[in-house]
Amino acid sequence: MTTPLGSFPGGLVLDGQKKRSTYDAIRKTPLSKKLILPLQQHIGAASDPIVQVGDKVLKGQKIARADGHVSVYLHAPSSGTITAIDEQPIPHPSGLSALCITIETDGEERWIDLEETPDFTTLSEHEIRHRIREAGIVGLGGAGFPSFIKLNPGVHHTVETLIINGVECEPYITCDDMIMRERAEGILDGIEIMRYALRVNKCVIAIEDNKPEAISAMELALARRNDLHNTSVVVIPTRYPTGSEKQLIQVVTGKQVPSNGLPIDIGIVCHNVGTSYAIGRAISHGEPLISRIVTVTGTDVKHAGNFETLFGTPMHELLSFCDTHREANEPFILGGPMMGYNLSGDHLPITKTANCILVGVDNAARQADPLPCIRCGECATVCPVSLLPQQLYWYSRSKDLEKTREYNLFDCIECGCCSYVCPSKIPLVHYFRFAKTETMNHELETQKSDNARLRHENRLERHEAEKKEKEARQRQRKLALAATKAAKEKEQAEKAKTAESQSDNQEK
Amino acid sequence: MPLSRLSSPFLSGTSRVTLHMLQLLLALVPAVIAIVYFFGPSVLITMTLAVIVALLAEALMLKLRGRPLKPFLTDGSAIVTAVLLAIALPPLAPWWLTVVGVLFAIIFAKHLYGGLGYNPFNPAMVAYVLLLISFPLEMTTWLPVASLSEQPLDFAGAFHVIFNGQLISGLGFDTVSGATPLDAMKTQIGLLQHPSYISQQPLFGLFAGKGWEWINIWLALGGAFLIYRRVISWHIPVAMLLALTSISLITWLLAPESTGSPLFHLLSGGTMLGAFFIATDPVTAATTIKGRIVFGAGVGLLTYIIRVWGGYPDGVAFAVLLMNMLVPLIDYYTQPKVYGG
């Protein structure tokens, strides 16, 4: 075990509420009759379907391919028939619809042939990344960034430390906790593969001290691996938002990721424990990513726990499986209570980034009319990024986007600590999201108008050039005309002259 | 519990503006008891009057500005302003002085700037300074502590004084009133008396003015409670008291004939009220950590400068207002370094 080297300012000590969902082992969600698979379950470009309606597919078969660099493959979570490829509502804060592939399962769960690789060292780093991409693996901590990209340090960087994020700092969520307790071996398999792909020697597994079972499970598994050198569990103090990548790096290494930079710039790569497990399965057993562990918990869930759920499973099936007492249209949270978003429709599918479904929380924030900001500065005290939320709020409210930038709006990680402590109950993060979107829209507009202006200017220039060219041509033609005219006149004059002289001679 | 917020975070802490204000009032209770003990019960009458006028003025202004009454009347901020002003006023302050002060604080210093959260100057101190400049006689007619007075004021007596402008006996104030210790120190130093000699007089106690030192100590303890409860942060009071101590210590060591001791300055007049209850008003103080230290130190230094070299015996109110003006500047230049920046 190693000790953390740093700390970050601010943060909150929150009531974890994790016991509720850790009494039982991870259970499997029953197979759903219908699986709805959005083509975009990751950051980047949506996958491109490679099946057609009516096709029979096997469990684990590719149904959509990566489109572009920042994209991954998508697989059929179970065997069955493709019944539709169309727009379906997806889990999104604004209730958007997007292209989805719908599979009617046949209940047979017939797998495709899996390509097992017992010794991953027979593969090159490049082949490993390629397989991870083909297995559809994205960051399972919640962001969903394609993992193979984060396993490619490129030629300009050397990676010093691989940090495995088992922090899980948000209250209520326990899927990482449970996977560490039950599948520590599998996580270590993934770590070995990632270390190989990144050519990194040192690895730390960071876990908050409110998960003693997970810590001992990981340490026990580590002790059994004699070949895994320079890997250690680092127990870090429980404080929200330690699980955020940048904050975790600061806690573990004492270093800060430069603003607008990436962890790789300071020689660090972070992956979630769930991702690590998925990578282990994908390389060693050839299994693509077709399911994840989802925490279902909250005050209205009778049998809270963690459920290994196939992607595409409609949420209402999972909720009724846990005996949830939810009134029709009562909103629930996807993700944690601090950073998740609320949904009201429960026919939405479970996706790769769905780590937790939370129905009912204690001490829920009320929709009270906020009082004015009294500038108490508590928000600044708890901000883990050292922003000044009250100033940002002031400028966001007055739509002074220039100023919000000056006060580093885009360094805000939207952790929600400021809103949590605000005595005036101002939904600060809401304002910051608004200001960010406004700024981005504004930039888009500026870019558009810049483009239009450029086009216009080019057009004018072109016209000017054409005009000049035309004039030049005309001038030349005129000159030529004048020249020929002069030549003709000269000729005529000469002719006349010769004629004259001839006549003269004749007269003579 | 069902969700009602539109976006995350869906959890909320227990901190409330009203709770802050209530704790602030609670922290003042011991000091108010001390004031009653030393200067009679008149402060209670002034305080009640001030609170009633403040709430009425607040309601009137909210109505005129078309704002909802309930959330703002119950936030407690108007009550805090009224109570702080009442504590700062002299015990013999006539009723109209209190009324004028409170009306000015609520209407001009608070609501004309936009109400709660938008006023650049501390309303209680704006009112105090207005009264001090406009009615210097009434504002400096102070009582000696009860034990020194031949006719200590009881409740009926205090009531009579406040509302009739004279003592029950019909005699004028000058038979009972006296200078504050700060005033006495200043005037007599001006007459080339040595401070150590001045503080031998009956008006003075162990370290500072009799009674005053205890009121200040109780205010400091109340302030410590507020820091413990995280209603205020330690930065402003500590910076202010350190600055005041340092400058008075330096002057005292270099020229002991020209000033009272550091302890005298710490426990006199409005030092502790200013440090823990006035300068820490979040609305009008600096908000960054470094900024708060600069702000507090500025208040401490200006308080001393005004007390010793200025025209007024106490300088806390002026010091706070002057530093209030600098807050935007201080906040701008003391922004914390952002992660990765």
Radius of gyration of chain A: 33 Å
The rounded distance between the terminal residues' Cα atoms of chain A is: 132 Å
* Residues in β-strands, percent of chain B: under 5%
Chain pair with largest interface: A-B, 70 and 44 residues
How does this model look, in words?
By secondary structure, chain A is of the alpha/beta class. Chain A contains 13 helices and 17 strands. Chain A is elongated, with a radius of gyration of 33 Å. By secondary structure, chain B is mainly alpha-helical. Chain B has one domain (17-329). Chain B is built from 16 helices and no strands. The mean pLDDT of chain B is 89. The interface between A and B is large, with 70 and 44 residues.
Chain-wise SSE layout:
The complex is a heterodimer of chains A (508) and B (341).
Chain A: E1 27-28, E2 34-38, E3 48-49, E4 56-57, E5 62-65, E6 74-75, E7 80-89, E8 97-105, H1 125-134, H2 147-150, E9 161-166, H3 175-182, H4 184-198, E10 202-208, H5 212-224, E11 231-236, H6 245-253, E12 268-272, H7 273-285, E13 291-297, E14 305-310, H8 315-321, E15 332-334, E16 341-343, E17 356-358, H9 378-382, H10 389-397, H11 401-406, H12 417-421, H13 428-507
Helix pairs in contact in A: 1-4, 3-5, 4-7, 10-13
Chain B: H1 17-39, H2 42-64, H3 69-73, H4 77-88, H5 95-110, H6 123-134, H7 136-140, H8 155-164, H9 181-190, H10 195-198, H11 212-228, H12 235-254, H13 262-266, H14 271-278, H15 289-309, H16 316-333
Helix pairs in contact in B: 1-4, 1-11, 2-4, 2-5, 4-5, 4-6, 5-6, 6-16, 11-14, 12-14, 12-15, 15-16
